[in-house]
Amino acid sequence: MRKTFKIIYNSFRLALLELKNNKLRTFLSLLGVTFGIFCIIGVLSIVTSLERNVQNDIKSLGSNTIYIDKWDYSGGPDYPWWKYVKRPEPKFSEMRFIKEKSSAIKNICFNLSTTFNVEYKNDMLSDVQYYGVSEEFNAVQPVDIAYGRYLNVYDFNYGSPNIIIGYENAEKLFGKAENALGKEVKLKSKNARIVGVIKKQGKSIIGGWEYDRCILVPYRFFLQMFEEKYSNPVIMVLGKDNISVDALRDELKGVMRGLRKLGPLDEDNFTLNAVSDFSKAVSGFFGSVNLGGWFIGLLSLIVGTFSIANIMFVTVRERTPFIGLKKAIGANKGTILTEFLLESAFICILGGLIGLMLVFGITKLATSIFNFPVAISTGLLGMAIFLCVLIGVLAGIIPASIAARMDPVVAIRSK
Known about the structure:
Elements: H1 2-21, H2 23-59, E1 65-69, H3 81-84, H4 92-101, E2 105-120, E3 123-133, H5 137-140, E4 145-148, H6 153-158, E5 162-165, H7 167-174, E6 184-187, E7 190-198, E8 214-218, H8 219-222, E9 234-239, H9 245-259, E10 271-274, H10 275-318, H11 320-328, H12 333-370, H13 378-404, H14 408-413
Parallel strand pairs: 3-8, 5-7
Antiparallel strand pairs: 1-9, 1-10, 2-3, 2-6, 2-9, 4-7, 5-8, 6-7
Helix pairs in contact: 1-2, 1-12, 2-10, 2-12, 2-13, 4-9, 10-12, 10-13, 12-13
């Protein structure tokens, strides 16, 4: 054990000595490893954190939820909008029919949306997101209330002018969000009373439900101000816990085709947009970005490997007499081999640590720019150290083998 610690100590000391005596040469050799670790760990840290936040936003939409709409949410460069625009809009009456015919549904609701102004005395907020929702909306898309209450059965059944306002809108109009309760505001041509304030959500990366800058309005009250067919109607379906998304989609497809009297050869005139599809698409996209980071990083690590190998060849040549002397007084091949491999690994780890420090700075910058936490996970730190050790061993194996096989007499006589 003592001998092992001595070998490790000597290797570490020699690595520091090499850095001290040949600063420029060692620094240039470290650049490849530093940049490689920076690319791989930096990209993985940012992309992993970004993906985690996007997936959390998607999960907030409901993991077992399907949006029935005339539009397909997948998008893409070849998006056939001309085909979708001709489709009929979902209707409130269709929501009721679906609820009666499907046994896979846990909750179902109807949602309308548009943008308009909200006025309070002499103040006005423009482009506020209006959501006209039916009774089960809160069960499909949960809304956390910070102050006051959520819309009740009376509000939905009679279209009463009671609304819920987003946290940011409440602060802009009333200074403090809690001051909004009980206030009367003007929505288009109607007066409405604020009965609740939505809990502050923060900015969503994918957009989604902009609760901070919205108002929730009972469906029937919404229709007193806007027409249904021009308000982006959507039917939102939450499946039962024991029903898979695919099974829910299949059942809804059959119900919708029957509802709209489509023949066996007729194309669907609706789209079933599952939230889980968004999650899969996001995973695929970020997977491609990760591959790009790995590719750039591995190229840099390959360059770094050759640089470290070069410096180790020079080091072996410079220490040839010293190696011969050590072998003459009893050092065996394994000791010489281990010392040079550890020295090579220590140099790589030093380059990796510089790369990690750069990544740490980037994560702090990214956190402030993107306004969401970016962190280096323990797993990524472990992978970085493993890569550094692996590169050190690969770079030093040939020079270390040459040093271990040297004849002590020949080595001592060399200059």
